[in-house]
Design goal:
With 614 residues, the chain is α+β, with helices and mostly antiparallel strands. It is built from 16 helices and 30 strands.
Length: 614
């Protein structure tokens, strides 16, 4: 077994992995960016190393920086969690090449085979796993998309090879959209996955999203731990996950589970993973289930632990993360397929710092003035925040996961409602009111919803009413005006990148004199942040005219204009990715571009200037 594991992630999943390590008597190492220096996963770890500035590309995604931290810590394994580097085959290969450090996850070869969707489709097809009609080779030209449409009809899904979670996927509803959507999918693939290859699939308009948890070892043992139903989605992002699915007969779930096992075995896959399927919904009455003749199709393999792995842990009793670590250490899976029993029903609620009534806009800052999570039988919280913590907005908006178990789905829903009512958070907005709404929604309660329900059918006014009735903070949860009065006597020392802390924190105490103090005044000014004032952010503005500012936090995907260009009202200036959607930033009036204040790939905050027009 390993001595010390570096967790190459942050937040609740980092703490989740560290807890598993602690139960196995394994030391833990955190990595953190400048933005995360006071975050929960840093507090929890045995030791922690700074790997760079807030920008993920310069810290959590820095291959050499993370590996160097593992060397400094003398860690003998790296666990990637999910997101960031978890499905990066190149990084996994680099770890595999480092003597004395083990990658906790599937091999880089398996990740490459199953991570590239066209390769995965070929493998699954050869293993007799149903696949959605589509291409098994990348497409590059609009004519190829049009030919596919003539053969299979519209709509068509254009998907990035390395994509997932809706990123890099564009839907073409008719031939007139082919060129724009192909270019957009390729652009997202390049921006997020460093791979602009795309492929085509027939777009299923009313599917259910069913996924199977897999665990496999290097001794040839492959097990599935039942399915999860992740059909409640917004813009292809899962919101509530549950297991087992309330829409499938036992015969259908067994067919899907065995198909997942066949596909994973054919790929010579090891460690934990998830095989995702789309199941075609049928016209059925409330209470009627999808039978063994229902169509289901392979979607993709997630070559990592999933956010919603907790659902499976609650209904099977198996600690998936601990078994990930044991498999990576060379141990065999310690149970047979027939030993897997599904007990009761579980749901997971993603607690996102977002205002659901405002198009799920993420919070732009704030502090957890109150953080009082629920408890009681069947209630589990995976989090890393504590009351008084500042919200870090540089990364994902999810701050916690609430997982609830019941003897059956009805009890699970009732217990979930009780837990969500108990969950008290003040200082930032969350989507807890939205979750409470869904647990009283007829379509969800009857389990007749599909992946399109939230985007196309739910009346948005109901979300606004829920937020008004049950919501607390709906703004950015900004700190109070007297925040500057707080004095934090906290000393952090880094020696060769390793973190050591001495803390003395006091609120409402006299300020510690720093810098130049006027004689006899007894007052000192707060020190300037490194690099000068951060009040404005972004590039220094030189151009004259009206500024076009970011309306939300996000990443610049594309810049459509150059300095000196003449633009008209409505012309697209910049493409900004926010909340995993592309947003066109357009000119409100005509004029000349006098300055472009951002670069492609740059992260921006709400209010940052993007373009200056004269």
């Amino acid at each position: 077994m390993f001595r010390k594991v570096l967790v190459a992630n942050r937040g609740e999943i980092a703490v989740r992995v560290m807890r598993a390590c602690e139960e196995l008597n394994i030391g833990t190492v955190a990595v953190y960016s400048e933005a995360d220096k006071d975050s929960g996963h840093v507090r929890y770890a045995d030791e922690a190393y700074n790997v760079g500035p807030a920008r993920a590309a310069d810290s959590y995604l820095d291959h050499e920086g993370v590996i160097e931290a593992a060397r400094k810590a003398d860690a003998d394994a790296i666990h990637p969690g999910y997101g960031f580097l978890a499905e990066n085959a190149e990084f996994a290969g680099k770890v595999e090449d480092v003597e004395g450090i083990t990658w906790i996850g599937p091999s880089s070869d398996a990740m490459e085979s199953l991570g590239e969707k066209t390769k995965a489709r070929k493998i699954m097809s050869e293993a007799d796993v149903p696949i959605v009609p589509g291409t098994t080779d990348p497409v590059t030209e609009p004519e190829e998309v049009k030919e596919f449409g003539e053969t299979h009809g519209y709509p068509i899904a254009i998907k990035a090879e390395g994509g997932g979670g809706g990123r890099g996927m564009k839907v073409v509803w008719d031939e007139s959209e082919v060129e724009d959507q192909l270019e957009s999918a390729k652009r997202e693939g390049e921006a997020y996955f460093d791979n602009d290859s795309v492929y085509l699939e027939r777009y299923l308009e009313q599917p259910r999203h069913i996924e199977v948890q897999i665990l496999a070892d290097e001794h040839g043992n492959v097990r599935h731990l039942g399915e999860r139903d992740c059909s409640l989605q917004r813009r292809h992002q899962k919101v509530i996950e549950e297991g087992p699915s309330a829409a499938l007969t036992d015969e259908l779930r067994e067919k899907i589970g065995e198909a997942a096992r066949r596909g994973v075995a054919a790929a010579e896959y090891t460690n934990a993973g998830t095989v995702e399927f789309l199941v075609e919904e049928e016209d059925r009455e409330a209470g009627e289930l999808l039978g063994p003749d229902a169509n289901f199709f392979f979607l993709e393999v997630n070559t990592r632990i999933q956010v919603e792995h907790t659902v499976t842990e609650e209904i099977t009793g198996y600690d998936i993360v601990k078994r990930q670590i044991k498999v990576a250490a060379g141990e065999e899976v310690d149970f047979e397929q027939d030993d897997v029993d599904i007990d009761g029903h579980a749901m997971e609620f993603r607690i996102n710092a977002e205002n659901a009534a405002n198009d799920f806009a993420p919070a732009t800052g704030g502090q957890l003035e109150t953080y009082d999570p629920p408890g009681g039988i069947g209630v589990r919280l995976d989090d890393a925040l504590r009351q008084g913590d500042d919200l870090v907005t540089d990364y994902d908006s999810m701050i916690a996961k609430l997982i609830v178990w019941g003897e059956d789905r009805d009890e699970c829903i009732e217990r979930s409602l009780r837990a969500l009512r108990e969950y008290e958070i003040a200082g930032i907005p969350t989507i807890i009111p939205f979750h409470r709404l869904m647990l009283t929604d007829e379509e969800f309660v009857q389990s007749t919803h599909t992946t399109k329900y939230l985007d196309e059918e739910l009346d948005e006014s109901r979300i606004e009413e829920a937020q008004e009735q049950w919501g607390g903070d709906t703004g950015d949860g900004g700190a109070s005006d007297d925040e500057d009065e707080a004095v934090e006597r906290e000393f952090t020392v880094e020696v060769n990148g390793k973190r050591f802390e001495v803390e003395l924190e006091e609120r409402g105490a006299p300020a510690i004199p720093t810098g130049d103090v006027e004689a006899g005044s007894g007052q000192a000014s707060r020190p300037e942040p490194a690099g000068g004032s951060s009040s404005d952010g972004g590039a220094e503005l030189e151009g004259d005219g009206e500024t076009v500012d970011a309306e939300m936090q996000g990443t610049i995907l594309d810049i459509e204009v150059e300095e000196g260009d003449e633009v008209a009202a409505g012309d697209v200036l910049v493409v900004l990715e926010a909340m995993k959607m592309e947003n066109d930033i357009v000119a409100s009036r005509g004029g000349t571009v006098t300055q472009i204040a951002v670069e492609e790939g740059e992260s921006v905050d709400m209010g940052n200037t993007l373009v200056v027009l004269e």
